[in-house]
Amino acid sequence: MGDDDGGCCPRMDLFRSEAMQLVQLIIPIESAHLTVSYLGDLGLIQFKDLNAEKSPFQRTYAAQIKRCGEMARKLRYFKDQMTKAGFSPSARSMIEVDIDLDDLEIKLGELEAELVEVNANSEKLQRAYSELVEYKLVLEKAGEFFYSAQDDAAAQHRELEVTHEDQSSITSPLLLEQEMAVDPSKQVKLGFVSGLVPRDKSMAFERILFRATRGNVFLKQSVVSEPVTDPISGEKVEKNVFVIFYSGERARNKIMKICDAFGANRYPFAEEHSKQAQAITEVSGRISELKTTIDVGLLQRDNLLKTISNQFEQWNLLVRKEKAIYHTLNMLSLDVTKKCLVAEGWSPVFATNQLHDALQRAAFDSNSQVGAILQVLHTKESPPTYFRTNKVTTAFQEIVDAYGREKNMPMQSKSEVVARLYGVAKYQEANPGVYTIVTFPFLFAVMFGDWGHGICILLATLYLIIREKKLSSQKLGDIMEMTFGGRYVILFMSLFSIYTGLIYNEFFSVPFELFGPSAYACRDISCRDSTTAGLIKVRRTYPFGVDPVWHGSRSELPFLNSLKMKMSILLGVAQMNLGIILSYFNGLFFRSNVNIWFQFIPQMIFLNSLFGYLSVLIIVKWCTGSKADLYHVMIYMFLSPTDDLGENQLFSGQKTLQIVLLLLALVAVPWMLLPKPFILKKQHQERHQGQSYQPLHSADESLEVEVHHDSHGHEEFEFSEVFVHQLIHTIEFVLGAVSNTASYLRLWALSLAHSELSSVFYEKVLLLAWGYNNILILVVGIIVFVCATVGVLLVMETLSAFLHALRLHWVEFQNKFYEGDGYKFYPFSFALVTDEDE
Hints:
Blueprint: E1 20-28, H1 32-42, E2 46-47, H2 62-85, H3 101-166, H4 174-180, E3 191-198, H5 202-212, E4 218-223, E5 228-229, E6 236-237, E7 239-246, H6 249-261, E8 265-267, H7 273-329, E9 333-335, E10 340-348, H8 352-365, E11 373-377, H9 393-401, H10 433-447, H11 451-466, H12 468-472, H13 478-485, H14 487-504, E12 520-522, E13 535-537, H15 556-589, H16 593-624, H17 630-639, H18 654-673, H19 675-688, H20 701-708, H21 719-743, H22 746-770, H23 775-813
Antiparallel strand pairs: 1-10, 1-11, 2-10, 3-7, 3-8, 4-7, 5-6, 9-10, 12-13
Helix pairs in contact: 1-7, 1-8, 2-3, 2-7, 3-7, 5-6, 9-10, 10-14, 10-22, 10-23, 11-14, 15-16, 15-21, 15-22, 16-18, 16-19, 16-21, 19-21, 22-23
């Protein structure tokens, strides 16, 4: 939070955004770089782009940004290489040294060239090594083919000779003699191709070969047991060694094309046994030499990457800072004649002295003869919205701000309701984030009331908070990142859930007598726990929360339904009244008497004449124990306001009061609708009739912004638009008073659903498993109970209650006062510079 202003009470920084001012800086060129650097360290000024009409390439410092971009590319290349090699950038540099950007550019260029050369050599060597490994496999496997074929041929030849000697009679086949007497010069010479093909393509490879050659090839394959590194892709692939025998040059050409198409690597193979053995010996020697060379190259690369990793974070931070500085300098206007840069930007009023100090230090450290000049500009432009938050309040403020992030979506992709989303608070309007810190976790807990489940969520959240320093420096998944960012929101949600769980007296749906014994006891022995018949009050009322005797009784559901439904209405009316009261403080702050008299007052009258009165009836019924039907009272208050109430009368004079309240509600509608447009029209005519100038800070300035939603020049006043806008606003409020109150009944519905689900899991899983008196069934039952509790109640129900609480704040609460048409303060700060910033 911010600093105190002094006095008895500290200033509430979150209720109103910080007072902002538009400042102009006149900076000498020789100290401009250092000045912007110091302002980036300070992080309290949001620069305006004074060169918006220029393209990025026409700006003054385009060349420097290009240099920084090139250095950032080299650093990304280094990071990719370190990731592949298993290195991580050192969290802190071994030696903190000041390095000039020019020296860093030269050093990065040298390191990149060296690393590229090392990688290129390593890639060539690795490819040659992989080819040799494959070649060796071909020599070994194909050699086995030829050895087995030669042995079979020799055995068959001996068998034919023996058969010819034994069968020399006249009955011996003549064709066999012709076969053995064939001229060797007329035998067909078969060629062969050997290599490796990926195993997943081997079947298709074989079919295509058969079809292309019409079966005039012989294919022999052998499976390689271990995956081999492919020389081209560098990935581990399961392959088969193949040998294809063919006849003719045309068949050979077809085989070569098919091998190329299937990515089959071909290798030469000698038929002679001696040459095969010699080739295997030579390949084995070359593999050993290449292995040694590759290991040396990898060691050299690892040493280079280790050197880079020690300084990587420092270099990366320097390049990002320099790039951000030059981006900012490109937003400044260059005054060539005066040798200076002119900057404009928004800064908080409290930061004026800090800005002066930063400018003076920059002028001194850069040895500039002339210091930078800071002056405040007076403008009617709407300033940005800036709340000083800490790690606890930031998440709650994000809940408020997040409702407007869909505004940039194209209109055709959104529904009519979503098109009216809120966003960042208007400059210095009342901030709902202050109340969200309490109301959001409380409304969540009303729907999630179980102190056993609350303790489970609390323990998980405490783990995130205790390890927040370590987790904040790690890259988490999307869901985990979101959960970690909202850890303090979840902490408050769990604490409030424990509180409401104690009120509901539910611990995993089981009641406990924590605050004393029950106020009721059995009248006689025949009284059973499953019914309230026979129960009498023997002690004073249970001191805190729901009496445990209600749980399990026949009256439990009607009693808790009535309690939670009425409680939901009371909470809803209270929160909506808070929203309308905040609209009063907005009108008071912006000096808009029109909004106070013709918006705040009639809205308070209308809402409380109907639903405020209903809330009073609920409290009176609780206090008196009356059996009056409140549904009947409210319905006939509209249908027959003059009829007697009979047994539904809660107090004397109720009928007269209802008639008065109904008349007030009817009067409040035209009160909201008619006067405001005519008063705005009259004020506009008085403001612009015979006046050329207007005071800078007038009482009606906020009113003018409200009417025209613009701050430039004198706009025309369109009475029809203002009247239609007021008509829509009035109808929306009148209908919304009913629908918003009904919407708060979701507190009752989800609370009941959570309680019943918890009861079902406990009774139908855990108690049922316990009743079997079997250890195995009990263990299974406990596992199912834990999984159901965690998966359904602690995850799905938590998310459901979170979303419903979010809706109640965004729609039912904030639409009573929150305009949300501001824009966020994004200062130039090195703390916000990330790897993704370009």
